[in-house]
Amino acid sequence: VFADSGISAVAQLRLVNGPSRCAGRVEVLHNQQWGTVCDDNWDLTEARVVCRELGCGTALSAPRGSRFGQGTGHIWLHEVNCTGTEAALSECRARPWGEHNCNHVEDAGVVCSGKPHLFCHSGPSRCAGRVEVIHKQQWGTVCDDGWNITDAGVVCRQLGCGTALSAPGGARFGQGSGPIWLDEVNCAGTEAALSECRAKPWGDHNCHHREDASVVCSGSGISEVAQLRLVNGPSRCAGRVEVLHHQLWGTVCDDSWDLIDAGIVCKQLGCGIALSAPGAGRFGRGSDPIWLDDVQCTGTEIGLSECRARPWGNNNCHHGEDAGVICTDSGNSEVIQLRLVNSSSRCAGRVEVFHNKKWGTVCNDSWDLKDAGVVCRQLGCGTALSTPTGAHFGQGSDHIWLGNVNCTGTEAALSQCRARPWGDSNCTHEEDAGVVCSANLPEPVTSPTAVTGDRVLPKFLSYTAHEFLCPVSQLPCSTSEVAAYQRWGVSP
Ligand SMILES: *[C@@H]1O[C@H](CO)[C@@H](O)[C@H](O)[C@H]1NC(C)=O
Ligand SMILES: *[C@@H]1O[C@H](CO)[C@@H](O)[C@H](O)[C@H]1NC(C)=O
Ligand SMILES: *[C@@H]1O[C@H](CO)[C@@H](O)[C@H](O)[C@H]1NC(C)=O
Ligand SMILES: *[C@@H]1O[C@H](CO)[C@@H](O)[C@H](O)[C@H]1NC(C)=O
Ligand SMILES: *[C@@H]1O[C@H](CO)[C@@H](O)[C@H](O)[C@H]1NC(C)=O
């Protein structure tokens, strides 16, 4: 087990009352008693130190105002002020222990990515190459001792690159430099991330860079688009543009931002076409990083990350210039035309389409990742991770609306893909197609499944807001977000 798995002997710091050990209310141990941290001056810089100290990857957000509930007892730290380079929260400047004018309403929280960074280096695409992981802010390689296709499969899935085609060793894609972080990796194959696999402790190896491990995944990475969201607007289809890169949400600068660029955003989110492309922080100022500047789409791209722009993070902007988008659709009409049912997430399930005022299913003949990718994009659910067939998410009833679906992968909606005429399939419901998209809600740990009529509510609906993170905000779901999911779950 990696040191990164949380056993890391850090008895001084913990995150409580969150959905995982890598998100929650910050608590520190002092004088053998746990206490909280006041949120004055609390932001991503401090959160980053916490995530690093806990081996939880990068900081996604630094929620204030007791988003993860109010602690009891001591408030140990106040006016914490980190530079961002500290190895532990206790190394940051702060008032003396226990000296504060706060109350628990102001308890600070952190949401970490929970995973170390990972990427493919020097390969022909972002889905093939030398495996590199980041640990202690330094990229390093993986030794090929014991490296096989099971391990490679975990890497491919984590990267959103499909399945593993091969697991070359012997520095097939060139030798790395710097640390060799992992040796004797031994995944069971079911892990969501390489960091969950068994391996020697970080940096403990008997290898040389001649033995660097690589992967070749089935996905090309070409159709993979960065995750995207619109925040602080009236619906999920209008707001400030934010993109996810290196597991961190950041904004887009409005320099040369226009309707063509905004149109790509609307298309990617399944929100119709662009009505306007407001700049100048019209939907409020985001927080760092500013990921994209001088964006110049041609209009044919399937995702914003495919448009020409300066390199990630390279910009001459400030957040007063944050770009926004207003799309034609409210974000609800898509849900009426297409939905994924019978899973705990609106971004995974049996595919159902609305036609002639009736919901029906899609046959799995020739159903593949390209088709599924269109579904995920149309729903604003990121990219397709898998295409479970054979009624994996249960059998529908009534109509089987589509068969022989054959998308090229660039369509904005499933209804634009080639397929047999509506209702003209030769299938049974045993062949109902499913999708799992990358923007998947975390599975709640325990919860009764609520059944209303013949419809199974997503399990998380019986959960209180702070028990899972909303994929859109990466924060505990607000009441209105829960209500939105509820609508999706029980529609029509
Ligand atoms: C990969 O290696 C592990 C451990 O050595 C082994 O259990 C597993 O079966 C291997 N996978 C394949 C596909 O050979
Ligand atoms: C579709 O589902 C059926 C029934 O489970 C299965 O036999 C078939 O292989 C599936 N087709 C594809 C293309 O996966
Ligand atoms: C949901 O899926 C399960 C199998 O995963 C199935 O037993 C159940 O009948 C399905 N329910 C609905 C409403 O489709
Ligand atoms: C999908 O369409 C392409 C042409 O657009 C064709 O070459 C291919 O054979 C089709 N695939 C299936 C499974 O029908
Ligand atoms: C539909 O399936 C039946 C039985 O499997 C077969 O006889 C028939 O030719 C099929 N029709 C089409 C259009 O594929």
From TrEMBL:
One of its GO terms (molecular function) is serine-type endopeptidase activity. One of its GO terms (biological process) is zymogen activation. Pfam families: SRCR. Residues 13-113, 118-218, 228-328, 338-438 form the SRCR domain. Its main location: secreted. PROSITE patterns: SRCR_1, SRCR_2. Disulfide bonds join 38-102, 51-112, 82-92, 143-207, 156-217, 187-197, 253-317, 266-327, 297-307, 363-427, 376-437, 407-417. Keywords: Disulfide bond, Glycoprotein, Receptor, Repeat, Secreted, Signal. It is found in: Secreted. One of its GO terms (cellular component) is plasma membrane. SUPFAM superfamilies: SRCR-like. Interacts with LGALS1 and laminin. Binds to extracellular matrix proteins. Binds to pathogen-associated molecular patterns (PAMPs) present on the cell walls of Gram-positive and Gram-negative bacteria and fungi, behaving as a pattern recognition receptor (PRR). Induces bacterial and fungal aggregation and subsequent inhibition of PAMP-induced cytokine release. Does not possess intrinsic bactericidal activity. May play a role in the innate defense and homeostasis of certain epithelial surfaces. This is Soluble scavenger receptor cysteine-rich domain-containing protein SSC5D.
